[in-house]
Amino acid sequence: MESQCRWELQIRRSTIRFATLALTLAISIPARVQGESLPPAELDSLEYFEGNWSCRQPAANNDPSGAFNWNVELGLNDFWYLGGIEQVNPPKDGQSIKSREFLGYDVVANQLTRSVVLGDGSSYNMTASDWENNQLVWTGSLIRKGELSQLRQVMVQDSPDKFTTTYLVTGDSDNWIPIVDETCDRIKS
Q1: CB within 8 A of 99, min separation 6: which ones?
Q2: What are the structural domain ranges in the chain?
């Protein structure tokens, strides 16, 4: 009988210890996960792009070969900026240019990151450090028509409501060659 009482007492103590441990874990694990699940502060570097933009290539106003609207908004629980372009005057004999993209911050690599997919099957993935002297330099790769190319974008804040971008690819001697310029103006609501 005495051993039965000891056995029951040990079970009760074990149950109390287990319940205390479970309660402690239930409180501390979500707090840690929640703390780790906050969007990184570095994401603020991309806030400049949030909104609706009217863009044209080439950058000059004389008959742009590509005019499109670029929309960027904060989404996915505020961890990513989501963007997309739509061509303003699509060609009558071809497909209009459309894209979807994610802009964010890679906390492991400590870099801004940008992934873009286009309606023609092309895609590009790029990284950047941060704005320096009103310039944001993205570097990465472009996959187009089954070919891989190195791609760089140099984005310059001309004003709070206007930026210009130069797209560059590598040439035969791995030097950067500009291929197109574009200008984007914020569309006022």
Answers
A1: 83, 84, 85, 116, 117, 118, 119
A2: 1-37, 41-186
